[in-house]
Amino acid sequence: VLGSDLAVSQRPVTGNTYEKSPNDKCFELYWKAPSNLVRPDNEAEIIDSLLQNIVEAAKVADIQHIVYVDEPNGTPAGRTLLEKNRIPHTLIRPAGDLI
């Protein structure tokens, strides 16, 4: 399940995982992020890159179907990627905000 109301935040990488140094950072993708989340200036570019990675991973993993929730305040980038890459998906457009 993917949603269109996405946000990112830079966080420290979990120790002993993929870090090159103890101070490495990664970007975490949130759906319906809390209002106090510190967002980077280039958030739209990062979200586009993460969505592209998700779509590529879905193709490699042979995901058969994705549900995409297109919220009123969201970005259409994910839906556009799914359509462009011909990944079978169901589009849900709620009338109002999700809780």
Furnish the topology, listing elements before pairings.
Layout: E1 2-3, E2 6-12, E3 25-31, H1 43-60, E4 66-69, H2 77-84, E5 89-92
Parallel strand pairs: 1-4, 4-5
Antiparallel strand pairs: 2-3
Helix pairs in contact: 1-2
Largest sheet: 3 strands, parallel
The residue-averaged pLDDT reads: 82
Specify Rg, calculated over alpha carbons. Answer: 15 Å
Helix segment tally: 2
SSE series: EEEHEHE
Strand order of the largest sheet: 1-4-5
**Total beta strands:** 5
**What structural class do you assign from the helix and strand content?**
alpha/beta
Describe the structure.
The protein is 26% helix and 24% strand. With 99 residues, it is an alpha/beta fold. The strands form 2 sheets. It has a 3-stranded parallel sheet, with helices on one face. Strand 4, helix 2 (77-84) and strand 5 form a beta-alpha-beta unit. Helix 1 runs parallel beside helix 2. It is globular. 10% of the residues are buried. The model has no long low-confidence stretch (mean pLDDT 82).
